[in-house]
Amino acid sequence: MDQQFKVVIVGGGTGGITVAARLRRARPELEIAIIEPATKHYYQPLWTLVGGGAARRESTEREMADVIPKGVTWIRDYVEGFEPEANALTTRSGARIGYEFLVVAPGIQIDWGAIDGLEEALGHDGVCSNYSYEFVNSTWAAIQATGDGNAIFTYPNTPIKCGGAPQKIMWLAEHHFRRAGVRERINVIFASAGASIFGVPKYRDALQKLVEERGIDTRFRHNLVALRPGSREAVFQRLDNDEEVILKYSMIHVAPPMSAPEFVRRSPLANAAGWVEVDKSTTQHVRYSNVFALGDASSLPTSKTGAAIRKQAPVTVEALLAVMDGRAPQGGYDGYTSCPLVTGYGRLILAEFDYDGKPAETFPFDQSKERLSMYLLKKYALPQMYWRGMLRGVA
Questions:
Q1: CA-to-CA distance for 293 and 341, rounded, in angstroms?
Q2: Which of 25, 37, 125, 282 could disulfide-pair with 319, CB 3.0 to 4.6 Å?
């Protein structure tokens, strides 16, 4: 082995940093390494507001070196493969790194190239996406430049991180169009591969009322497959009958298809769908007892959000320490996730629910109603909780 550690964590995103911080607090003596090639760390939930012109992109960025917990070794490299039988992994630089315990949290892979024409068009001529730090500012530019025609907001036929994000920016854009006095000339289209506006009945009913009140043109079971930027046409596949549907656009916000990272998909750790196969209650791998996974690359059957990771991380740490101490891990994660659904400037529905789609709400009021207080929570309080709490292992 080129290097050996007690715990190796793959990924310096929300899951990896939070677990590292909690492990350091619980067992300061542990030798821990994080393998992460990126030099920047982003608070991505705020990109919705950046795309809507209500926050600055730069406020979401930190140096990776500043968020990795002190005492944790940072290996700036890409993981190439796993050897769970040998308790080792290999990196792109050719290093072989050994571990006693492994935590896999590399996040999700964005497959921009899966939509024909998207990569070349992104960032100009009305084509935008909040799913990229590089291009998120182009969303606000596109919204401001739209005065008529179709404003399209898409949702792909794959799992994605923050399943509410594709419609959050739609609600902000629609609100802006009304403020700017151009709403009557714009057809706001939500073209989603899904079958409804939201999966959980309580929040779906509330959002469907807003769809009707605000005149949103919903096209469910429509999956974006190509863009023709020269003619400003979006090509969709109707999932119910494979029919091709072509829509003209003045602007189009694309939520791109996503998948498990390639090095995870082809590894022995993956299930048939490519995600790291773990017990949904403990986050422990179903075949390798010293391997754990959380966050977007895991098989945990819940929405892929930072709020979910906030509940997953302490369960992962407790389970890992139990196995380290020769005890059986106790289940504790019930699938909790949260989706702060921005429905306009100063308006938010706070969806919180578990594996069964049952509301698991924090506050003593009906969270399916739009509230200014919840919008302020998202814009101001949650970022502070993230930087000062989660990433330091105390929230």
A1: 27
A2: 282
Q: How far is the C-alpha of 253 from the C-alpha of 227, rounded, in Å? A: 12
- The two tokens of residue 250 are 């003045």
Q: For this structure, is 162 an active site residue?
A: yes
Domain segments of the chain as ranges = 3-108+261-332+387-392, 112-258
The structural architecture, per CATH, of the domain 112-258 is 3-Layer(bba) Sandwich (3.50)
Segments in the chain below pLDDT 50: none
Same fold, 3-108+261-332+387-392 and 112-258: yes
Buried b vs exposed e over 159-194: b needs ≥16 C-beta within 10 Å?
A: bbbbbbbbbbbbbbbbbbbeeeeebeebbbbbbbbb
Helix, strand counts (H, E) of the chain? 11, 21
pLDDT at 140: 98
Active-site annotation holder among 339, 349, 382, 390: 339
Catalytic annotation on 128? Answer: no
Q: What does pTM read for this prediction?
A: 0.97
Q: Which one from 68, 162, 308, 350 is the annotated catalytic residue? A: 162
pLDDT value of position 1:
81
